[in-house]
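WARN no homologs supplied; continuing
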Amino acid sequence: MPSHLGRIGIMEQPPQTNEYALLESLIVDNPDLERLEALLDQFNIFEALGAVRVELRHSDFLAFLLNPNQSHGLGDVFAKRLLQKALTSTENHFPITSIDLDLFDLDSMVVLREWQNIDILLLDEENKLAVIIENKIGSSEHGDQLRRYRRIVTQHYPNLRQVCLFLTPEGDEPSDAKYISIDYLLVAELIEGLVESRASTLRPDVRTLMTHYS
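OK structure emitted
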């Protein structure tokens, strides 16, 4: 048999380096990896509906959680915690602080979707607060939209103090420095924390939906 044919089909064994041994220990009889694979194999309603990368569906669900008068039973907790996390993550000065938010009662807050093309707008006349949330998934800013949204809200609600959030999967930098950049990891962690801390009071269907989302 020709010498070059003798080499066909023969695979050299990888050298038993420290890296190879480490990789082998990771994938063989690793209970943590097995639990992770089992978790990833579970049914997820958002994946089943094809909503994972659909920006409108994310905005719809977040608007649901942000609305203190919705049926989730969280009241204003999610809205408060999201805003507090955002405000403590930036060095920019804003007209309210996380301490102010802790004292606010946001039960009368109104949540609007796609008002004047703004993804989510929170309005609270009692606490003189307007929150603009621009959500981007798989798309980028166009034109001068961030500044334009601020101007529109100022024109319609000149007496309200503004907090502006720019939400993206990776925490992209907004073109307007008046916006705070936040990412979906922050959102997921907030939801997971609420599912855990409110396990005894959340309705089972709401808890399941929040778990699937996070």
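Strands lie at 110-115, 118-124, 129-135, 161-168, 179-183.
OK
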